[in-house]
């Protein structure tokens, strides 16, 4: 577990180690089958898998990269200019939706297991069944890592989480835990998932009211709560930017007073959250059909 956080070279060596990833997955599968998701060894295994999934898309060996990305459309570097919060432009998003998804192998080996639906379902199962905060955080964090990129692999993982494995209910539960880093990681995962336009209606329907409910009434004091608040605003921005219906859902969940209060902070305690809330408000105002409702 310690070695897996030793940097890119350490991750590379461990990913290439014959049988290591397979053994970790095998152990965790056994722990879930035996209804023992809370033992320390399971936590260690999931933390290692979490670390090995970090920057996976960037660090994939050439042989895997070619087979997965062979059909990838060329996206010009100009289209990758980050917008607010580093979101990709709509043009890039639309091109991403058009990409053919990588085909899954029925019996993945080694590094292939890291993005396979079998392991994605294991993470979601641990999120639902484990009561260990480190195990929950590592499972959420692994999914966050796998959905962080811009290519077909992260997009396929996001689709599996939301549509194929019905992962949103388990993630939603993590929004309401008392452990701040678990909550922060759950929000960060939702932030990644919400970038995919084809998943936004599902996410908004199941998660948007919960995101509004955990927004603080004013600017948060601690760094971790500040980051979580900024991430919530970022996720709401993604969900409402192109959907007047989702913006109305935010309004009916009484989100507007909270977002206004966060945006009006003029101190430097949590400028990141205030800026995020301000951009969200600006985006909400672009739905002209809702102006009268906003004013009320």
UniProtKB/TrEMBL annotation:
List compositional bias (Basic and acidic residues) regions by residue number. Answer: 94-107
List, in alphabetical order, the GO biological process terms annotated in this UniProt record. Answer: cell-cell adhesion; desmosome organization; heart development; intermediate filament bundle assembly; protein localization to plasma membrane
Positions of the UniProt region annotated as Disordered? 79-108
> Looking at the keywords, is Repeat present?
yes
Give start-end ranges for the coiled-coil region(s): none
Q: What is its main location?
A: other
Task: Give a Gene Ontology cellular component term annotated to this protein.
Answer: cytoplasm
Q: Which UniProt keywords apply?
A: Cell adhesion, Cell junction, Repeat
Q: Where in the cell is it found?
A: Cell junction
Extract the PANTHER family matched here: PLAKOPHILIN-2, PLAKOPHILLIN-RELATED
Give the record's family classification: Belongs to the beta-catenin family.
Name used for this protein in its record: PKP2 protein
């Amino acid at each position: 577990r310690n070695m897996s956080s030793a940097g890119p070279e350490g991750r590379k060596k461990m990913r290439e180690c014959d049988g290591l990833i397979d053994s970790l997955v095998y152990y965790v599968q056994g722990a879930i089958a035996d209804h023992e998701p809370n033992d320390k060894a399971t936590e260690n295994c999931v933390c290692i898998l979490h670390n090995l999934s970090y920057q996976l898309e960037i660090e994939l060996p050439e042989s895997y990269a070619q087979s997965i990305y062979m059909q990838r459309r060329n996206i010009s570097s100009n289209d990758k200019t980050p917008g607010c919060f580093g979101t990709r432009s709509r043009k890039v998003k639309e091109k991403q939706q058009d990409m053919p998804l990588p085909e899954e192998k029925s019996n993945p080996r080694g590094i292939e297991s890291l993005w396979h639906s079998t392991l994605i379902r294991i993470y979601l199962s641990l999120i639902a069944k484990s009561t260990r905060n480190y195990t929950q955080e590592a499972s959420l964090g692994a999914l966050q890592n796998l959905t962080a990129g811009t290519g077909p692999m992260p997009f396929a993982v996001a689709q599996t989480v939301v549509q194929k494995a019905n992962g949103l209910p388990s993630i939603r539960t993590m929004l309401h835990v008392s452990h701040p880093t678990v909550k922060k990681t759950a929000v960060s995962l939702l932030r990644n998932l919400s970038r995919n336009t084809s998943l936004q209606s599902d996410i908004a329907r199941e998660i948007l009211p919960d995101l509004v409910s955990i927004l603080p009434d004013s600017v948060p004091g601690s760094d971790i709560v500040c980051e979580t608040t900024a991430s919530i605003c970022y996720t709401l921005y993604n969900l409402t930017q192109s959907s007047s219906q989702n913006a109305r859902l935010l309004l009916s969940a009484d989100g507007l007073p909270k977002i206004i209060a966060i945006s009006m902070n003029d101190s430097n305690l949590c400028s990141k959250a205030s800026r995020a809330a301000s951009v969200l408000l600006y985006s909400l105002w672009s739905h002209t059909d809702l102006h009268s409702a906003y004013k009320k």
